[in-house]
Amino acid sequence: MDPKPKRRVVVENGDTGEDLVLATLIGNGEDLGPIVRHAFEMGRPEALLQQLKGVVKKKEVEIEDLCKSHYEEFILAVDELRGVLVDAEELKGELASDNIKLQGVGNSLLIKLEDLLESYSIKKNVTEGIKLSKSCVQVLELCVKCNNHMTDGNFYPALKTVDLIEKNYLKNIPVRSLKLAVEKTIPVIKTHIEKKVTSQFNEWLVHVRSSAKTIGQTAISHSASARQRDEEMLERQRRAEEQNVSGLGDFAFTLEIEEIDEDSVLQFDLTPLYRAHHIHACLGIRDQFRDYYYKNRVLQLNSDLQISYGQPFIESYQTYLAQIAGYFIVEDRVLRTASGVLSSDQVETMWETTLNKVTSLLDDQFNRTDSATHLLLVKDYVTLLSETLRQYGYDTSQLLEALDKGREKYHDFLLRECREQIVGALGNDTYEQMVIKKDTDYENNVLVFQLQTSEIMPAFPYVAPFSSMVPDTCRIVRSFIKGSVDYLSYGLHTNIYDLVRKYLDKILIDILNEVVLSTINSSTIGVSQAMQIAANISVLERACDFFLRHAAQLCGIPARSVERAQASLTAKVILKTSRDAAYLALLTLVDTKLEEFMALTDNVQWTTEETPQNGNEYINEVVIYLDTLLSTAQQILPLDALYKVGCGALEHISNSIVGAFLSDTVKRFNANAVLSLNYDLKMLENFADERFHSTGLSEIYKGASFRSCLVEARQLINLLSSSQPENFMNPVIRERNYNTLDYKKVATICEKFKDSADSIFGSLSNRNAKQSAKKRSMEVLKKRLKDFN
């Protein structure tokens, strides 16, 4: 379609440029708005109006000219237009009729359309309402679920539900009132859960503290059982080794190891702690809970460490120490399983505090205690506590050091108790040989202490060479060894044998030896008691080897290691010295008794005129006493002691005979007195020879004899009986026959010797008589001795 040509505007004479422009714009159908606006802005609307009127006139003129030039065409067009008008009227009527029909049909449809639109709107609103309702229902369902969990005490699911509401639903709740209610309730729920969980946790704190004693006692009892099993196993191993060393056969033994899971044995529930810790972590206050737990447990520990002085410590120490053990077993489980609740530094701090308190308490209580038994009971339980807690990784060396400080005090108490027992044993002893009537008594009093001198079981009744104080004392010393080992075992020292040996020497030297020496030096014992004491010391000296082996056995030391000579006790040497002291005391008592029997100055007729045919009467009593003495000594004393006793007694008799000649009481004596003493001496010599051979001493002491103990008296009697006493001054003869005699003693005795009865008539009748050769020789001896001196 061709574009409409722009109408050409004929510019008439008199038209201005503005009118021409306006006419051109109108002719082209352009917008006159800017021109009108400009006219009003310039304040010249009238001019524009005039111009427009001019344009209208021109257009009217143009129309009029156009109509004149196209008149016929215009008439035809008008006719056609009239026809079109008629058709239009008909069309209009038809349209109106159709419209009425359409309106009639469309009204019902329109109503339905409106209903449909309304339904669509309702549907949309209902759908939106359902969607919102579902959101609210979900929130409410979660709230109900949370309430159910709260009611059932399931706080963690309740807290997770609250977190779900808070994170996923709270911002999208469409109902403002519900949203505000939920927002307000969530902190309340969290606070309630925190309080409820804290309350349950506090109940658990009370429960676990009350259960700590049972937990500790159970753990310590397991340690005690394990210790007993170890001791039994070591004992079996020791016996097997000893039998193997003895050549009795090869023995195989197995080490049975019973693995015990302490966590399964010690049943205590940490669930409330785990729950409380987890819930506080979910609440974002984990550190607050950790501090709360630590502070409360420290308070409980400080309370547990306090001890009541209203009750004796010996009655409460087990409960006290078991409570501490249970406390730290719980803390170890918490440290290992409740991650983050406790730190190892916190546990170490609490343990150091406890060590300082307990060691201080032990020092104080040890100072207050005056019984070795009480100290041992406390020590045993403390070492069990130490072993128990060491299994859980706690360093218990400070506890063992505290026990080691009480070692000397314990042994002082033990020694004091043993002193009382030993004094009682010696005081109750009759110092008579024990008569053992049956094999059980023999085993309990002899074999158990290895005091037998033969491996053959004797016939009963059996008369032992010792009195009752020996087995009684051995039992006391054995009990002391056991007590010493019990205290030193499981302590700070791994090798306790040297310490036990030290204390064993102490009881044998400072207690037993001292009490025995005190008894020996007392004035209440007689010859039989002194002899029995000497015999007892010999047996005790032999028992030292048993004591040492027993100590080694209890310490787990092989028996062969204590059989070396350098391993013997110092007390053995001391007892040997005491045995010698007992022999000296015995000999002193024997000498005193012999002096009572002999009393030579009274029992010998020094100047009798009758030639005696036998010895003096006293000598029979002396021989009988010596026979009884040596018979008893042979039964209970070793042969070397028997030899000492026999030699000592006979030497004293020899000295008594020589001393009698030297006594100031004896002013003079004659040959008859010498002859009677010669009979006495021969009887003694015969007795000495018989005893020396019958006792078996001749087999041991082949270069000696009992007779040699009487040599001084024999040489003196021989000298006084000699026909040529002056030979005493001959060095060769003197060395051969009189080597034991002293010049001064011989001179004194010879001055008293008179070869006739001391009477006036005898003196007068013999004054001018010819002196015999013996008298002359004696006079020569007297003179030469006087010159020599």
UniProtKB/TrEMBL annotation:
Record keywords: Coiled coil, Cytoplasm, Exocytosis, Transport
Chief localisation class: cytoplasm
Subcellular location: Cytoplasm, Cytosol
GO cellular component, one term: membrane
Cross-referenced Gene3D superfamilies: Dsl1p vesicle tethering complex, Tip20p subunit, domain D, Exocyst complex subunit Sec15 C-terminal domain, N-terminal subdomain
InterPro entries referenced in this protein's UniProt entry, alphabetically: EXOC6/Sec15, EXOC6/Sec15_C, EXOC6/Sec15_C_dom1, EXOC6_Sec15_N, EXOC6PINT-1/Sec15/Tip20_C_dom2
Domain Exocyst complex component EXOC6/Sec15 N-terminal: 51-220
Keyword Coiled coil tagged: yes
Domain Exocyst complex subunit EXOC6/Sec15 C-terminal: 398-752
Keyword Acetylation appears in the UniProt entry: no
Biological process terms in GO annotation: acceptance of pollen; Golgi to plasma membrane transport; intracellular protein transport; pollen germination; pollen tube growth; vesicle tethering involved in exocytosis
Coiled coil residues, start to end: none
Free-text function comment from the UniProt entry: Component of the exocyst complex involved in the docking of exocytic vesicles with fusion sites on the plasma membrane during regulated or polarized secretion. Involved in polarized cell growth and organ morphogenesis. During cytokinesis, involved in cell plate initiation, cell plate maturation and formation of new primary cell wall.
Family: Belongs to the SEC15 family.
Name this polypeptide is given: Exocyst complex component
Organism this protein belongs to: Linum trigynum
Lineage: Eukaryota, Viridiplantae, Streptophyta, Embryophyta, Tracheophyta
